[in-house]
Amino acid sequence: QRIHLDSPAHHEGLGCTGDYRIGANIAALAFGETRLARADLFRTTLLLRQQKKMFHTSYELCFVLMMQEYLERTGEKRFAESCYDAIRIVFEHFRSMTGPEGLISQAENYLFIDWAVDGDIIYHHPPADRGTAAMTALWYGALQAMEKIALLIDMPHDAEQFHQLAHTVRQAFNHLLWDPVQ
Fold it and tell me: Are 4 and 16 in contact (CB under 8 A)?
């Protein structure tokens, strides 16, 4: 399989975990089916091993979240172990995009957020400064997922590292990006 059929009119090349995650959840909840999700996760692992990142940085985080959802459904510890190096690749990539304030503020421009348009800003590929809040929130969720995956495969040191960084990210997000008055 070289393309993912996400609609009759739109076919994605492999590595589109934003779409894969939705399809995986539908297939699992509607039919109890997890085989396509497993294949997508494995192929994405191979892609990350080869390229060390994905075209849409947000899809790296979708990969982590999808992996954690898949593992909650299947409990496949050996599969998690076989793909764990890709989780670490995503972790290191996102740590490199974290600014001194603890937010994802040094990200590349390929931050797929939505198909929305705001004036001359297209959120399919917004500038990094427009993606900080969305990417930081996704990063926080992915860190929580990484912690669960690390615990599943008996990596308590990694789990603690992910937990501590998630706490730091949450504090930075709430302090710098949250306005309770609005």
Answer: yes
